[in-house]
Structures are given as C-alpha cells and as structure tokens.
Amino acid sequence: MIKGLQGIGMTSPRTRERMITRLMDQGITSHKVLDVIRNTPRHIFMDEALASRAYEDTALPIGYSQTISQPYIVAKMTELLLESSGRLAKVLEIGTGCGYQTAILAQLVDHVYSVERIAPLQKKAKDHLWDLKLKNISYLHSDGGWGWPEHTPYDGILVAAAPPEIPEMLLQQMAVGGVMVIPIGSAIDQRLQRITRTETGYEVEKLESVMFVPFLSGRK
Ligand code: SAH
After folding, report:
1. Residue 65 annotated in active site
2. Are strands 202-210 and 190-197 parallel, antiparallel or unpaired?
3. Ligand 1 atom nearest to 98, measured from its CA
4. Where are the domains of the chain?
5. Residues 195, 157: Cα–Cα separation, whole Å
6. Does the first or last residue of the chain, that is N or C, have fewer Cβ atoms within 10 Å of its Cβ?
7. Which tens digits make up the pLDDT trace of 118-138?
C-alpha cells in the first residue's frame, strides 16, 4: 500500500465505515457503489490541512474556487447512472475537479473520459488517480460544453457542475439507451436530472434539489 493511502485517525478505515453507514441512512442502496466508496481513500484527493475532514458528508474546497463533491452526491449520481443502464462501456465525465468522482466511476465502468476546464486541477487529479493505479481513464483539458466528440457515443454522461440548461452537444453525444445525470439551474435553485436517450428522443426525470458550482464556459 502506498504511504498515506490507508489512512490513520480521522482518515482510517473505521472513519470510512461510518461514512458508509451514513450513506445507507441517506438512501444509497447499491452495494456495488457502497463497496467502491468504502475502498477508495477520499483524503488523498484533498490538501493535507483538510484531509482529516475527508469523510464528513460535506463539499470541501480544492482550490480555484472549486469544491470536491459531497460523498452523498457522488454516491447518488453514480447509483443513478448505474441503475438505469446495462453495461457502461464508455462514460463521459464533465468536471474532473480533484478526481474523486472519477476514481469511483473508473472502478465501476470500462472507461472514463474526463473533461476539465482548469488545467492545474486536472493535473493534480491525474497524479492522484495514477497513485491509485486507475488506468482506464482518459483526460481532456477543455470546455465540457463541447463534450468529447472523438469517443462518442457515450453510454453514460455525468456532469459535476450546473448549467442553466442541458448542453445540446452533450445530448448529441449520448448513445441510444444511454443516460446522463446532470444538475440544472441557477446558483440558488438547482435540480438533479436524469436524461435517457430513447430511439425517438429523450426522457427527462427531475430529481432532488442540489447545490453544485456553476458550469462555466472556456478553458483556464
Ligand atoms: N466531482 C468533482 C467535482 C468538482 S467541482 C470532484 O469531486 O472533485 C466541478 C468541476 O467542474 C470544477 O473542477 C470545475 O472547474 C469544472 N467545470 C465547470 N464548468 C466546466 C466546463 N464547462 N467544462 C469542464 N469542466 C467544468
């Protein structure tokens, strides 16, 4: 085990187990998802000063005005993606951030294509994911509003920042039968939505209220 990966004290396996119990209390039922979260260290994705808070159920700062998604949200979005689709061969993730959600996805699907607009954040994420030996991930520094056309169609798309409406390019890049999980709305009023592409169009399910950072255009 790589130094620091296992964790001690507030980052120990016992603290992680408490997080799993909390996720189950909050309604997460997929054992596949819970197992992967249990076995993935979250503290290594954060600055040392915040590592002791890694297993609290909160969003925490990762620099550049961005936050690591709250464990419950990571679990929920992953569960929503998995439950409505068969085998997920190719998943597009918009908003690599610190890479924690990427780590969870990479252990449950064949390949993750992860797009991030802030280059230094993506670089750090890449290093951490490499330390975890997760190699079925490709990275692109780009505005996720364009998706990643080279690898279409995607069986799943997971968006970790909230646009005011569903980006058209992402709809186009979904496979028939594919699903997209995405927060939609303004800074103060967002709902999680699950979109399924059918033979004839798109089905939209509006789910719970959430709070994500805004989906911004352009690269930094
Ligand atoms: N799941 C990530 C969430 C990070 S926050 C984690 O747990 O760390 C959302 C991320 O989306 C930020 O890193 C932000 O820079 C990125 N983002 C926002 N708008 C984007 C866009 N248009 N294209 C790509 N990434 C975007």
Report:
1. no
2. antiparallel
3. 8
4. 61-210
5. 9
6. N
7. 999 999 999 999 999 999 999
Q: How far is the CA of 97 from the centre of ligand 1 (A)?
A: 5
Per-residue pLDDT of the chain (220 residues; tens, 9 = 90+): 454 676 666 677 888 899 999 999 999 999 999 999 999 999 999 988 898 899 988 889 999 999 999 999 999 999 999 997 678 999 999 999 999 999 999 999 999 999 999 999 999 999 999 999 999 999 999 999 999 999 999 999 999 999 999 999 999 999 999 999 999 999 899 999 999 999 999 999 999 999 999 999 998 8
Q: CA 47, CA 61: separation in Å to the nearest integer?
A: 9
Kindly report the protein residue whose alpha carbon is nearest to atom 3 of ligand 1: 97
Q: How far apart are alpha carbons 119 and 125 in whole angstroms?
A: 10
- How many A from CA of 200 to the centre of ligand 1? 31
**The CATH number of domain 61-210, selected from 3.30.110.70, 3.40.190.290, 3.40.50.1980, 3.40.50.150:** 3.40.50.150
By C-alpha distance, which of 117, 120, 114 is closest to 92? 114
Structure token pair of residue 34: 């819970």
Structure tokens at 190: 């967002």
Ligand 1 pocket list (CB less than 6 A): 62, 66-69, 94-95, 97-98, 100-101, 115-118, 121, 143-145, 160-161, 213, 215-217
